[in-house]
Design a protein that fits this description.
Layout: H1 2-28, H2 38-95, H3 103-140, H4 143-179, H5 183-281, E1 301-305, E2 324-327, E3 329-330, E4 334-336, E5 345-347, E6 351-353
Antiparallel strand pairs: 1-2, 1-6, 3-4, 4-5
Helix pairs in contact: 1-4, 2-3, 2-5, 3-5, 4-5
Protein name: SH3 domain-containing protein
């Protein structure tokens, strides 16, 4: 590829020199209209436009390939990071399911949803790699483009030879006019004109071939690049739609979890307030333990402490989870654990019959 670029650079320099020489002859002497080929000039202009067009399209394809390649590399790292975050959220939610707060369930929903989103992201990257990156990269290095460019380079070389030969013919014409008509100058002029005709014929055929090849390459570049860009847009659209749908569902689930948590917390507050009110008002009238079958009063029953209770006033008993006590008298809220009335009271919900 570097060799071709160097050859093209040398050709452009040589063509510039030939144009300078040709302009000098044109300014000094009137040029024969027969030496000017309008069709060849038009062909040359068309090839220049096609060369610039295919060059710009190739640069665009190369930029797309580089951009997609970088996007895939960066997104792959981001997916790994977000997957770890999703796993951490799921782990926290699983370890704290007994919590009455909304965070545990929201963490599980968040982690599960983002795993789905990253799965969609992986599908997007696969489509970009298979349907955008690979086809464009292959086309950049394809043979048709290089073959068309080689034809264009050959055309430029022949065109350079034609311009040189035009200068030679003009030179012979001037000598023929200055020296008069003689066999040697006439022969050399005819040979120069014959060689020019051959070169122009070759140039015309090569120009048509190069133009056809460049037109085919240009059409293919435009078609394939457009289709790959459209495929990229379709893939991104599908990914973002899926991600938006998953996030909408996640948002609704998190809001519902918060409402349920707030409702449960409100119920607990009402229950605590009710218990606090009962404690403040004091125990209700005691109910004696039922008599046994012999008509004698029961001595009470054994209960196990399931919730701790800290004494707040005289006559109340502090207890800890796991303690075992004997209940002597009961009321709706209170239980007494001693024989003396209103001594050693505890809240009934803290006890459970052993």
């Amino acid at each position: 590829m570097e060799t071709i670029k160097k050859q093209a650079s040398r050709l452009r320099e040589q063509m510039a020199k030939q144009h300078a020489v040709l302009r000098q002859f044109t300014m000094r002497y009137s040029q024969d209209p027969a030496l000017i080929d309008e069709a060849e000039l038009q062909c040359h202009q068309n090839l220049q436009k096609l060369y610039n067009s295919t060059k710009a399209a190739k640069h665009l394809q190369r930029n797309i390939v580089r951009g997609v390649e970088s996007f895939i590399a960066i997104s792959t790292k981001q997916i790994e990071i977000l997957k770890r975050l999703a796993d951490d959220c799921c782990k926290y939610g699983s370890d704290n399911q007994s919590s009455n707060f909304a965070l545990a369930k929201a963490s599980v929903d968040f982690g599960t949803s983002h795993k789905l989103i990253e799965k969609e992201n992986e599908n997007l990257l696969k489509i970009l790699a298979d349907q955008v990156f690979a086809p464009l990269r292959e086309m950049i290095m394809s043979a048709p483009l290089e073959d068309a460019r080689l034809l264009t380079y050959r055309y430029e070389r022949i065109r350079q030879d034609v311009e040189s030969q035009i200068a030679e013919v003009m030179k012979r014409q001037m000598k023929s006019k200055e020296a008069g008509s003689n066999d040697d100058s006439t022969s050399k002029l005819k040979n120069a004109e014959f060689k020019l005709t051959e070169l122009q014929t070759t140039l015309s055929a090569l120009g048509k071939e190069a133009t056809a090849a460049m037109l085919a390459v240009e059409a293919q570049q435009q078609k394939v690049t457009y289709e790959r860009l459209l495929a990229m847009v379709d893939a991104e659209k599908a990914y973002h739609q899926s991600a938006a749908s998953i996030l909408d569902k996640l948002h609704d689930e998190m809001i519902l979890a918060k409402e349920q948590s707030d409702s449960l917390a409100q119920s607990e507050v009402i229950e605590i307030n009710s218990q606090t009110k009962s404690i403040t008002e004091g125990p209700e009238p005691m109910k004696s333990i039922q008599n046994n079958e012999n008509g004698q009063a029961n001595e009470g029953y054994v209960a196990e402490v399931i919730h701790p209770f800290d004494a707040q006033a005289d006559g109340e008993l502090s207890i800890s989870v796991g303690d075992t006590i004997v209940v002597r008298q009961v009321s709706t809220i209170w239980m007494v654990t001693g024989r003396v009335p209103r001594k050693n009271w505890v809240v009934s919900i803290c006890l459970c019959p052993a």
